Amino acid sequence: MNRKKFNDDFKKMIVDFYHSGTSVKDLSGEYGVSEVTVYRWIKQLTPVGSGDESITQKEMVEMKKEMLRLQQENEILKKAMAIFAKK
């Protein structure tokens, strides 16, 4: 089965159409994207929060991954510091 790749601009356009009142079923039929995919894009790209503090679900996932990476890096540095302090 061939999987189509859609760029971010296309995804944002579909989500904007949804927010302007176009139904998921209409978007799916018109642009050849499954309804499940459209719902996933809406979930990922719809801002959470209000005003300047709003972020998308996708950005939140990326931030959590980065935070985990930094926490692991910090633990490694703490262990290295303890080893060098013994010498």
Describe the structure.
This protein has helices at residues 8-19, 24-31, 35-45, 57-86, and strands spanning 47-48, 55-56. The chain has a two-stranded antiparallel ribbon with strand order 1-2. It has four helices and two strands; from the N terminus they run H-H-H-E-E-H. The radius of gyration is 20 Å and the shape is elongated. The model has no long low-confidence stretch (mean pLDDT 90). The protein has a single domain (8-86), classed as Arc Repressor Mutant, subunit A (Orthogonal Bundle). Helix 1 (8-19) packs across helix 3 (35-45). The protein is mainly α. It holds the Pfam family HTH_Tnp_1. Keywords: Coiled coil. This is Transposase.
Rough outline: elongated
Q: Count the strands?
A: 2
Helix share bin: over 70%
Largest sheet: 2 strands, antiparallel
Instruction: Indicate the proportion of strand residues.
Output: under 5%
Across the major sheet, the strand order is 1-2
What is the radius of gyration computed over CA atoms, rounded to a whole number of angstroms?
A: 20 Å
State the oligomer: single chain
Order of helices and strands: HHHEEH
Which structural traits does this protein have?
elongated; 5% strand; mainly alpha; two-stranded antiparallel ribbon; 87 residues; Arc Repressor Mutant, subunit A
